[in-house]
Amino acid sequence: MLEPSGEAETVVLADLRARGLVQDHTDWTALSDRLAVGPTALYCGFDPTADSLHLGNLQGILLLRRFQDAGHIPVALVGGATGMIGDPSGRSVERQFLDTEVLDANREAIGEQLAGLLDVGADGPGMLVDNRTWTEPLTLLEFLRDVGKHVTVNTMLAKDSVRGRIDRETGISFTEFSYMLLQANDFLELHRSHGVDLQVAGSDQWGNITAGVDLIRRRTGDHVHGLTAPLLVRADGSKFGKSEGDNIWLSAERTSPFAMYQYLLNVADDDVTDLLLRLTLVSPEDCVAVRSAHDVDPSQRIGQRRLAAEVTGLVHGVGVLPAVERAGEVLFGSRPITEVDSATLTLLATELPSSARSLADVLEADAVDLLADPVVGLAKSRSEVRRNMKGHSINGVDLEQRSSLVGEADLLDGRYVLLGRGRKARHLVVVSD
């Protein structure tokens, strides 16, 4: 058996510290020694409260990924059981229960996302597990005897996730109060069945993690480890990963790659370095270099562009980036739409207001009529367009500078015509088959 290296911390722990990804931990030296002995199995849990994870979850996924890339064994847990209960951590009110059918669909969708970012498939060293597998067969008496017996109410009341809810008028139900015990039992089960010696998560899970560490010590005599990272927030303290109250989802159906890229392209300068460190696989040294280049001329948004490309490429694949970047350039005026390829035009058709029309309705049509069409909605009337021919355009060219008739040469890729008003209002006409 290999012996611990005796180093103060392993490379992966040094990397986490350099990235600002360490908030709470058990015994740092003991954890470093355990990692130095050889491949260590670790887990992070994700409850299927929706059919997609969101950008805030990416930090937890990449915690597993960073250990995986250092030779350790990731275990991604999708909480089919705990998802039925709802974690009270960080919440002021109780979650609405989801029925089994919805949870099953959510669990499957989230599992696919995790498998796309981690080696937890059939061919990978890691595992994708569902705590419903071992929780559902438990009887109430078994749970009370084997788990509840080893955790005092005093200890549970001292946890921030519980104490914060008790101090509120709404209080906390026994159902949510028991969540900590379920998660502690997950750690025990994974330790026994798969040799998991480390749980990682966001800092709001620290109370749940330590409950599991203590349960394992009481039940088995083994010493396991816990590690949390700071929650992902902006420099102003607001929650990261939301736009106008909505999550930025990892699912392309919920948040398109283009929308994710644009969201990241518009983060504040003060947030760029922290997000590069915590949400990408770019080395800490390169993150600092990117920030230095960014500071030379912040208006060029070098940091935001690197962040948007790294995160979007990681989540959706680097193959989406050329079309996403070109589409952004078209919408913000730095690239003529006449210079982009078919993939970019197809992407624009999903991101812009658009309408389908027959070839007969488009070819030789007067753009004045199209712009004033209520479906297009770029002008209230034809006379409004005629009064401001400079402010209305076909494929980025003002009507003042060209004929208002749509010719065959205006059909981009044979089927797209971009109508515009001013610098921002756009409508893409798509010739239907």
Radius of gyration: 27 Å
With strands numbered from the N-terminus, the spatial order across the biggest sheet is: 1-6-5-2-3-4
Uncertain regions spanning at least 5 consecutive residues: 1-7
Average predicted confidence as pLDDT: 90
Would you count the extended β strands for me?
13
Shape: elongated
Which secondary-structure class do the elements indicate? alpha/beta
Assembly state here? single chain
Main sheet specs:
6 strands, mixed
In terms of DSSP E residues, the strand content is 5-15%
Helix content: 40-55%
Helical stretch tally: 21
Distance between the termini: 67 Å
Keywords:
13% strand, five-stranded mixed sheet, six-stranded mixed sheet, disordered N terminus, alpha/beta, 433 residues
Report on the architecture of this protein.
It is a single chain. This protein is α/β, with parallel strands linked by helices and 433 residues long. The chain has 21 helices and 13 strands. The protein has helices at residues 11-18, 28-37, 58-69, 82-85, 100-117, 132-135, 140-146, 153-158, 160-166, 174-177, 179-194, 206-220, 257-265, 269-279, 284-296, 302-316, 321-331, 342-351, 359-362, 367-372, 382-387; strands spanning 24-25, 41-46, 73-78, 127-130, 196-202, 225-229, 242-243, 246-247, 354-357, 392-394, 397-398, 416-421, 425-431. The strands form 3 sheets. A 6-stranded mixed beta sheet has the order 1-6-5-2-3-4, with helices on both faces. Strands 9-13-12-10-11 form a 5-stranded mixed beta sheet. A two-stranded antiparallel ribbon has the order 7-8. Helix 12 links the parallel strand 5 and strand 6 (225-229). Helix 14 (269-279) runs antiparallel to helix 15 (284-296). It is elongated and about 85 Å long. The termini are far apart. Mean pLDDT is 90; it is low at 1-7.
